[in-house]
Specification:
CATH superfamily of one domain: Rhodopsin 7-helix transmembrane proteins
Structural class: alpha/beta
Largest sheet: 8 strands, mixed
Strand order of the largest sheet: 10-9-11-12-13-16-17-18
Distance between the termini: 155 Å
Radius of gyration: 51 Å
Number of strands: 27
Number of helices: 23
CATH class of one domain: Mainly Alpha
Length: about 850
C-alpha cells in the first residue's frame, strides 16, 4: 500500500491520473465539533457491499487494458486514484477534495505533488454523491463522468458544464416504466421510494405520467432510510408499519425506485420482520418493477435473507455486454498481494465470511486467500460485469479515447511525437472537454459509446427479468429493451414468453387492476368517489356493442351489420326480400299461376262459346278485355317476387296500376252498358245511340290512358329504383324498390281507388234492375270485395316492412283480381257448361223482361 494511502483507497501511478469515487463500505461517522481540524473520521465498524468492489476492479481492469494497448495511448500511461464515499455525501465531498490536493493532505487550491496530474474523475453511485462531487469539480472544470441515474436538472448542461453521465437520461426510464405497465395492462399499482428528497422527486414525477396514461397509483410506500441510526426501536416500528401495509395490500405490482439505500433498507426490513413475526416473505406474490439503479446485490448482513421474494422481478438496466477477458482478470486476484488495494481484504472477509490471521477480530473461519470468486452467490459477486461496472469501464475508455484524439491531432509526424507526449503529460483537465463531448468509439464488447448533446450516454436500456434460486444464485434474463434511437413506435419492445413470473402467480402473468376487466359486450362506468381505475361494467345498451376489454364506450355496428346476442361482435345482416325459393314466395307464385290458369280457362270457354247468347248479351269484347286484364293482373304480381332490380322496380307498380285500371275500366264499362241497355227499353229513349262497341271502347281506353299518363309522368320525373333499407330491421337489410316519387305512387293508387269507387257506386245503384243476366249484382259484390281488399291493404302496407309488405301488396292484387274473376264469371260458366238449355235468346229475353 502506498505510504500516503489510507484504508479503502486504491492508487496506481501514471502520467495522467483518473480519479474515482466509489461506494463499497458503509461506516458510522463522528459528529464534527469544529474544535479541531474538521475531518471526517470513520469508525472501525464497516458494513460492506461485496458486489460494489467489482466497480473498483472494472476501473483497474480498464486502465491496465489501455496501458497494454499501444493503439490507444502510445507512450502515455494512465494511473488512477480511487477513494470510497462510504455511501456518505460528506465523505464524498471530502475525498473529492482529496483528489484535488496533495497525497493525504486536503488543502484547497494547492497541489505540490507533480505526480498527481488529475485529468478526470469518475463517480458517484447516486445523484447526491454525484452532485456533491460536481459542485467541486465544476469549479476547476475537471471532467466528471458519473454512472448514476437521477432526475435531470433544468438546463443541466448549462449548470454543470463539466458533468457527463455514462448512462441514458432518466426520462427514458420513466417512459419505459409507463410503456411496460401499459403493455401488461397493469393499471392498479403501488410506488415504493425512499423517504427523502430523491424518493419524493421520483413519486412526484411518476404519478402525473401514470395518471396521464390511465394508470392509478393505489398505494405509495415511503421507506425510512437508516444507516447506523441510534433509535433502532423507533426505526423498526416505522418499517414494520410499511411492511404490513405492503403485505396486506391487494396490489400485485409495485414500481420501486430501487437505489442502493432504499433496497438495502427494504431487504433488511423484510428479513427482520420475517424473523420477528414469522411472516412468509416469499409468499407475498408481488411483481417488483425496478428502476435502473437496481443491481441484485446485498450487504453482508443480508446473508441469511431469502432472495426468492424478488423472483420474477422486472427491472430496467443500463445496457451492458460481456467483456471477454474480465473473468480472467478476476481469477488473478490475490488478497495477500494487495499492490496498493485498500479494498480487497475487507471485501474478501465479508464476501467469504472469514477473517485473515492479522485481524483483531475473532471468527471460526480463517481466510486462506485461495477462496474462489466464482463460488460466491450472485448477490455478493458476479464474474461478469454488472451494469454499473460496465459504465465505469466505458468511462475510462472514453477518457482514454479523448486523450488519444488530442495526441493524434498533435503528433502528425514522428518528429513531434515526443513533444506530444510531453504536452499530454502537462495537459490541463479543462482542455479535455471539447474532445470528450465529441467522443465516439466501439468498445471491446462491440458497443458504440458516445455522448449526446446533454453529455449523457446515447444508448438503450435493457429490460431484465430476475430468476432466483434457493442457493441465492440468480439469472438475469434480458426480455426487452427501451431504445430511443429506434423508429417511432418501436422504442419499446418486450418478449412475454421469455418472462418467468413469481411462483405465487402459478407462472401466469398477474393482473394488476382495481377490479376485473370489463369483458366484450360491456363498457366501463366510473364509480363515484373512487379512482378512475375502479369502475363497473354494465352491459352495452341495445343496438351497441364493445368488442374489446375495458372499452370506455360501446359503439354502433356499421349499417350492414347488427349486434350479436351478447353484444360483443357485429354480425353481417341477411338480405330481406321475397324470394321465389322460400315458402311464402312459392305459395304466392302458386296462387298467381293458379288464378292465371283459371282466368285462361274461363277466357278459353268464352272464346269457344263467343257466339252463344249469354256471351254476346254482356258485350263479349268487354268480357274478353276484362279476362285479359285479369290475366295480366295475376301475372304482374310475379314482378314483386325476387330480388329487386331497377327494371322490375320500374315495371311492377306501373304495370300493376295500368293493368288494374284497365280491368276496372272494363268493369265500369260493363256496368254502364247494363244501365244504358235498360234505359233504351223506354219508348223514345235517345240513349240507344250510345250503345255499342264505341262507347265501351272509349270508356276503357279513356280511363286506362289517364292512369298510363300518370305512370309515364312518374317514370319520366322520378322513377322507382332498387334500394336497401339498413335501419328498419335490426338483423336484416331490406332489399326494396324505392318508389321514387311518393306523390306519384299514391296518386296512381288514388286514381285506382277512384275508379273502384265509381264502378262500385254505379253497380250498386243498378243492382236491382230486373233480369236473370243483369251483371250489376255480381259486379257489386266483386267491387265490394275489391274495395275491402284495397282499403285493408293501406294500413297493412304502412305497418309492415320488407318482404311482408311486398307480400301484402301481392295478396291484395291476387285477392282483388280473384274477387272480380270469381263473382262475375262463374255464373256464366255454369250456364255455358252445365245448363246449355238456358243459353238461348228466348230464355234471355224471357228472363230479362
Amino acid at each position: 500500500m502506498d505510504p500516503h494511502q489510507t484504508p479503502f483507497e486504491y492508487s496506481q501511478a501514471g502520467d495522467l491520473i483518473v480519479g474515482a469515487i466509489v461506494s463499497v463500505v458503509s461506516s458510522m461517522f463522528d459528529e464534527i465539533s469544529f474544535e479541531e481540524y474538521p475531518e471526517m473520521k470513520a469508525s472501525d465498524e464497516h458494513i460492506s457491499t461485496p458486489k460494489a468492489y467489482q466497480q473498483v476492479l472494472s476501473l483497474v481492469f480498464a486502465v491496465n487494458e489501455i496501458n497494454e494497448n499501444p493503439k490507444v495511448l502510445a507512450n502515455i500511461s494512465l494511473g488512477f486514484y480511487i477513494c470510497d464515499s462510504y455511501f456518505n455525501t460528506r465523505m464524498a465531498y471530502q475525498n473529492t477534495m482529496k483528489l484535488l490536493s496533495a497525497w493525504n493532505k486536503i488543502v484547497a487550491n494547492y497541489n505540490c505533488d507533480k505526480s498527481k496530474n488529475l485529468i478526470a474523475v469518475i463517480g458517484g453511485i447516486d445523484s447526491e454523491i454525484s452532485l456533491q462531487m460536481a459542485n467541486i469539480l465544476g469549479v476547476y472544470k475537471i471532467p466528471q463522468i458519473a454512472y448514476c441515474i437521477f432526475v435531470p436538472m433544468v438546463n443541466a448542461k448549462t449548470q454543470l458544464p463539466s458533468f457527463y453521465r455514462m448512462v441514458p437520461n432518466e426520462a427514458l426510464q420513466y417512459t419505459g416504466i409507463v410503456q411496460l405497465l401499459l403493455h401488461f395492462q397493469w393499471t392498479w399499482v403501488g410506488i415504493m421510494a425512499a423517504d427523502d428528497d430523491r424518493g419524493e422527486t421520483f413519486v412526484q414525477t411518476m404519478k402525473p405520467m401514470l395518471f396521464l396514461y390511465g394508470v392509478c397509483v393505489a398505494f405509495t410506500a415511503k421507506i425510512p432510510i437508516m444507516f447506523y441510526t441510534v433509535n433502532l426501536i423507533g426505526y423498526l416500528r416505522s418499517m414494520k408499519t410499511v411492511t404490513f401495509s405492503l403485505m396486506e395490500s391487494s396490489i400485485k405490482v409495485f414500481v420501486v425506485n430501487s437505489d442502493h439505500k432504499t433496497m438495502s433498507c427494504f431487504k433488511w426490513l423484510l428479513y427482520m420482520n420475517s424473523l420477528s413475526e414469522g411472516i412468509r416473505v416469499t409468499s407475498m406474490g408481488k411483481v417488483w418493477v425496478m428502476t435502473a439503479h437496481w443491481d441484485f446485490s446485498s450487504m453482508t448482513f443480508h446473508r441469511g435473507f431469502d432472495i426468492n421474494v424478488f423472483h420474477g422481478a422486472l427491472s430496467f438496466a443500463i445496457h451492458s455486454n460481456e467483456v471477454g477477458t474480465f473473468p480472467d482478470f478476476l481469477h488473478l486476484l490475490q488478497p495477500n498481494s494487495q499492490h496498493g488495494d485498500g479494498f480487497i481484504k475487507i471485501f474478501w472477509q465479508h464476501a467469504f465470511n472469514c477473517l485473515f490471521e492479522d485481524s483483531s477480530e475473532e471468527m471460526n473461519d480463517t481466510c486462506t486467500g485461495q477462496e474462489k470468486l466464482d463460488s460466491l452467490p450472485g448477490i455478493f459477486f458476479e464474474m461478469r460485469m454488472t451494469g454499473q461496472s460496465y459504465s465505469i469501464y466505458n468511462s475510462v475508455y472514453a477518457i482514454a479515447y479523448a486523450l488519444h484524439k488530442i495526441y493524434s491531432s498533435r503528433a502528425k509526424s514522428r518528429a513531434i511525437a515526443d513533444k506530444s507526449r510531453t504536452y499530454l503529460s502537462n495537459l490541463q483537465s479543462w482542455q479535455l472537454h471539447p474532445f470528450l463531448r465529441s467522443i465516439s468509439f466501439n468498445n471491446s464488447a462491440g458497443d458504440m459509446v458516445y455522448f449526446n448533446e446533454n453529455g449523457e450516454l446515447a444508448a438503450e436500456l435493457d429490460i431484465v427479468n430476475w430468476v432466483t434460486f434457493p442457493n441465492q444464485s440468480f439469472l438475469r434474463v434480458k426480455v426487452g429493451r427501451m431504445d430511443p434511437q429506434a423508429l417511432q413506435g418501436g422504442e419499446f419492445s418486450i418478449n412475454e414468453e421469455a418472462i418467468t413470473w413469481h411462483n405465487g402467480f402459478n407462472r401466469v402473468m398477474p393482473l394488476a387492476v382495481c377490479n376485473d376487466n370489463c369483458h366484450p359486450g360491456h363498457n366501463k362506468q366510473k364509480r363515484e368517489g373512487e379512482p378512475f381505475c375502479c369502475y363497473d361494467c354494465p352491459p352495452c345498451p341495445f343496438g351497441k356493442i364493445s368488442d374489446q376489454k375495458d372499452m370506455d364506450d360501446c359503439f354502433k355496428c356499421p349499417e350492414d351489420q347488427y349486434p350479436s346476442k351478447n353484444r360483443d361482435q357485429c354480425l353481417p345482416k341477411t338480405l330481406n326480400f321475397l324470394s321465389f325459393t322460400e315458402p311464402l314466395g312459392i305459395t304466392l307464385v302458386f296462387l298467381a299461376l293458379f288464378f292465371s290458369l283459371m282466368t285462361s280457362l274461363v277466357l278459353g270457354i268464352f272464346i269457344k262459346n263467343q257466339n252463344t247468347p249469354i256471351v254476346k248479351a254482356n258485350n263479349r269484347n268487354l268480357t274478353f278485355s276484362l279476362l285479359l286484364a285479369l290475366l295480366l293482373c295475376f301475372l304482374c304480381s310475379l314482378l314483386f317476387i325476387g330480388k329487386p332490380q331497377t327494371m322490375t322496380c320500374c315495371l311492377r307498380q306501373t304495370t300493376f296500376g295500368v293493368v288494374f285500371s284497365a280491368a276496372i275500366s272494363c268493369v265500369l264499362a260493363k256496368t254502364i252498358t247494363v244501365v244504358l241497355a235498360f234505359m233504351t227499353t223506354k219508348p223514345g229513349s235517345r240513349i240507344k245511340k250510345w250503345l255499342g262497341k264505341r262507347l265501351a271502347t272509349s270508356i276503357v281506353l279513356c280511363f286506362s290512358l289517364i292512369q298510363a299518363s300518370i305512370c309515364v309522368v312518374w317514370l319520366s320525373t322520378s322513377p322507382p329504383f332498387s334500394d336497401s333499407d339498413m335501419g328498419s330491421l335490426a338483423e336484416e337489410i331490406i332489399m326494396e324498390c324505392n318508389e321514387g316519387s311518393v306523390i306519384m305512387f299514391y296518386g296512381m293508387l288514388s286514381y285506382l281507388g277512384f275508379l273502384s269507387i265509381v264502378s262500385f257506386t254505379v253497380a250498386f245503384l243498378v243492382r236491382k234492375l230486373p233480369g236473370n243476366f243483369n251483371e250489376a249484382k255480381f259486379i257489386t259484390f266483386s267491387m265490394l270485395v275489391f274495395c275491402c281488399v284495397w282499403l285493408s291493404f293501406v294500413p297493412s302496407y304502412l305497418s309492415t316492412k320488407g318482404k311482408y309488405m311486398v307480400a301484402a301488396e301481392i295478396f291484395s292484387i291476387l285477392a282483388s283480381s280473384a274477387g272480380l274473376l270469381c263473382f262475375i264469371f262463374p255464373p256464366k260458366c255454369y250456364i255455358i257448361i252445365l245448363r246449355p238449355d238456358l243459353n238461348s235468346k228466348d230464355q234471355i229475353i224471357r228472363r230479362t223482361f
